[in-house]
Amino acid sequence: MFKVENIKKSFGDKEVLKNINLSIQSGEVYGLVGANGAGKTTLFNIIAQILKPDFGKVFVDDKQVKSANDLSQNIGYIIDIPAMFEYMTAYEYLDFLMSPLKLNKQQVREKSDYLLLAVGLKDVGNKRIKTFSRGMKQRMGIASGLVSNPKVILMDEPSSALDPEGRIDVVNIIELLRKQGKIILLSTHILTDVERVCDRVGLLVKGTLIIEGKIDEVLKKYAKPILRVETKKVDEVQKAIKRVRYIVKTTLINEGIDIECKEGKQRDLFKRISELDIPFDGIFFKKPTIEEVFIEANKEVVK
After folding, report:
1. CA–CA separation, 81 and 161 (whole Å)
2. Could you give the CA distance from residue 60 to residue 82 in angstroms, rounded to a whole number?
3. Which end of the chain lies in a sparser environment, N or C, as judged by fewer CB atoms within 10 Å?
4. Using one digit for the tens of pLDDT, what is the confidence trace for 74-107?
5. What is the number of other CB atoms lying within 10 angstroms of the CB of residue 212?
6. pTM of the full structure
7. What pLDDT digit, counting tens, does each position of 195-214 carry?
8. Exposed e or buried b per residue across 65-77, where buried means at least 16 C-beta atoms within 10 angstroms of its C-beta
């Protein structure tokens, strides 16, 4: 198990992290999301012992991590723009990173081949890193973070520079690591990836974890009932619901309208709309997304 307890951090008069508590089990992927400046990278840097908290503790398997020397092979840190010795080839750089592991040459090459294959760089092991695109460097950074076979893996925007195919590769890597029992703390702005791969999710706003839970539980608790009506007769739909008191909000969309109603009124709204004598292309309640939930929650806190 991995835990952070009561982490607080300020820079001058600005309180960046306010009493953060997290616990993640083996084989679990936790998605930490929030706007720029929410404190995500600061928290990651504290966990990785790059920064010291003003208050709080970090634990791996019930052992407190007090310094970089305590990290050993327990925590791997994968950042969005990795710093590497770019004059080295991919093989040379991985060889350099593995030097403390006391492996023989064959073991180093086998491990390097495995890591490069996992991140989609199997054909560029002999190329210098300075010739890599940003996306390739990001893949190389992922491989570097896995060299020590860490128990806990911090991923800070691991797919920010990748195309859709590259993002799928990162998701597949995360799934593989999950099956190996790794503990993964993932920070990303790509919330569709969070829904796809994370077991639990937390929303960090101005240094406070305001929402946390399993994906399906968060969606159920915070999502709003919105009926999407796809029709060219939007004016007639608006006229029909003009005096309906349980309508919260309407939003025009391309060739249609989204109608938000009060909880418990979904069936009545659907019946009322479907009985209108107009042509429809579709009538359905929208499946909520983590992105929509978090955007609304963030607005409420920032107000």
Report:
1. 9
2. 24
3. C
4. 888 998 778 899 999 999 999 999 998 889 999 9
5. 16
6. 0.83
7. 889 999 999 988 999 889 99
8. beeeeebeebbbb
